Amino acid sequence: MIKAEEVYKIGTFNKPHGVRGELQFTFSDDIFDQVEAEYVVCLLNGIYVPFFLEEYRFRTDTTALVKLEGIDTAEQARPLTNTEVYFPYRLAEQAHASSEEQFVTWHYFVGFEARTTNGITLGAITAIDDTTVNVLFVIDHAGKELLIPAAEDFITDVDTHHKTLVLNLPEGLLDIDHAPSADE
């Protein structure tokens, strides 16, 4: 049985495409292509279910058409409309181990706890904001949204087993987020 802590979200199946059972897939992470994955995982009725990839082709840098094994008609694909798609951490870690890069993708860190090198717990990384050139970690800091630049230079340690990320942040970065507003 696949557990929530074993996977992370990489996108969403949209609507069926054509009559062969293909699905439009909007993704935030193309890890499924980087490691030549055999399957992706979908959350259906509270259960994480693997779906084996028969084939896929990219339409843009964030969308693909995906054909899943056993899904051969638009009617069979329709129940997967708007279904969240996940990828196993262990497969992403295998890509990490064989890669010269420090990590494969920023989205891999969603769900990790962020801490600073001087022991401050920032909170859980809830999302990645990559809508601009400067990618940001979106962190839930005691119910308040904290935005920290996602930069390799800031990362000092990654503990995949405990899902923690240690950051060495420039002096004053956290002070900016805690500065009093004009209303205070």
Count of distinct structural domains: 2
* Pattern of helices and strands: EEHEEEHEHEEEEEEH
Strand order of the largest sheet: 1-2-5-4-3-6
Please, what is the CATH homologous superfamily of the largest domain?
RimM
Shape: elongated
Jot down its keywords.
184 residues; mainly beta; Elongation Factor Tu (Ef-tu), domain 3; SH3 type barrels; 2 domains; elongated; disordered C terminus
What is the topological layout?
Blueprint: E1 7-17, E2 22-27, H1 31-34, E3 39-44, E4 47-58, E5 63-68, H2 74-77, E6 83-88, H3 89-98, E7 113-116, E8 121-129, E9 136-141, E10 144-149, E11 155-159, E12 164-167, H4 173-177
Parallel strand pairs: 7-12
Antiparallel strand pairs: 1-2, 1-6, 2-5, 3-4, 3-6, 4-5, 7-8, 8-9, 9-10, 11-12
Describe this structure in words.
Helix content is 12%, strand content 44%. By secondary structure, the protein is mainly β. The protein has two domains: 94 residues, RimM (Elongation Factor Tu (Ef-tu), domain 3), CATH 2.40.30; 68 residues, PRC-barrel domain (SH3 type barrels), CATH 2.30.30. It has a six-stranded antiparallel beta barrel with strand order 1-2-5-4-3-6. The radius of gyration is 19 Å and the shape is elongated. The C terminus is likely disordered.
Gist?
This protein is mainly β. 12% of the residues lie in helices and 44% in strands.
